[in-house]
Amino acid sequence: MDIENSLKEIIQDLLKFFSEKSAKIEITAETAEKDAYRINISGLNSAAMLIGYHGENLRALQYIFRIIAVKKLNQQKLNIILDIDNYKKEYEDNIISFAERKAEILRKTKKIQILPPMPSYLRKIIHMHFIQDKFSDIQTESIGEYDNRQITLKLK
C-alpha cells in the first residue's frame, strides 16, 4: 500500500471521532519536498469547528494527525499540511499577495519592507515564492526570534 492511501485511511479513522463519514479527501504530493503531502478535506458537516478560531483547531488536528501518521507509517520525516475546505491554501495565497504588494512598494520606495511575524511554514512559502525570476531583484531574509520571526524584503 502506498503512503497516500495509508494517509487517507488514517484521516478517515481520525474523522470518525467527529462523526464525519462522507468527507472528500484529496492528497497531493508536494513536488518541492520529498515526503511532503498536502491533504485537503472537504464536505464536512463540522468544518468550522474543526478549523477553529483562526485555524487553531486545524493546527492541533494536523499535529495529532502527523504524529499518528509517522508512527503508523514508520517514517522518520513526514511533512504534512492538513487543510479543511482550502482554508490554509486561501490564507497562504493572501499572504503571498500581501508580500507581492510589499515587494512593489519596495521597488518604488527602495525602502526595506518588513512582513508581520508568521509561522515557519509560511515564511518558507514566501521565501520559495520569491525565488522566481520576476523577483530576481528582491532578496528575502528571516529576522527575529521565536514567535516574532518575520521576513524582510530588500533590493539586491
Describe what this molecule looks like in 3D.
- This protein has helices spanning 3-16, 47-51, 56-73, 87-109, 120-129, and strands at 24-29, 36-42, 79-84, 113-114, 138-143, 150-155.
- The protein has 156 residues and is of the alpha+beta class.
- It folds into two domains: 3-85, K homology (KH) domain (GMP Synthetase, Chain A, domain 3), CATH 3.30.300; 90-155, 2-Layer Sandwich (Ribosomal Protein S8, Chain: A, domain 1).
- The chain has a three-stranded mixed β-sheet, sandwiched between helices. Strands 4-6-5 form a three-stranded antiparallel β-sheet.
Strand segment count:
6
Give the helix proportion (percent range): 40-55%
Assign the CATH architecture of the largest domain.
Answer: 2-Layer Sandwich
Secondary-structure element series: HEEHHEHEHEE
Count of discrete alpha- or pi-helical segments spanning 4 or more residues: 5
Shape: elongated
What is the CATH top level name of the largest domain? Alpha Beta
Q: Biggest sheet: strands side by side, in what order?
A: 1-2-3
CATH-level-4 superfamily name of the largest domain: K homology (KH) domain
* Strand content bin: 15-25%
State the major sheet: 3 strands, mixed
Number of domains: 2
Q: How confident overall, as mean pLDDT?
A: 92
First and last CA, distance:
47 Å
CATH-derived topology of the largest domain: GMP Synthetase, Chain A, domain 3
- Regions with pLDDT < 50 over 5+ consecutive residues? none
- The value of Rg in angstroms is 18 Å
Name the structural class: alpha+beta
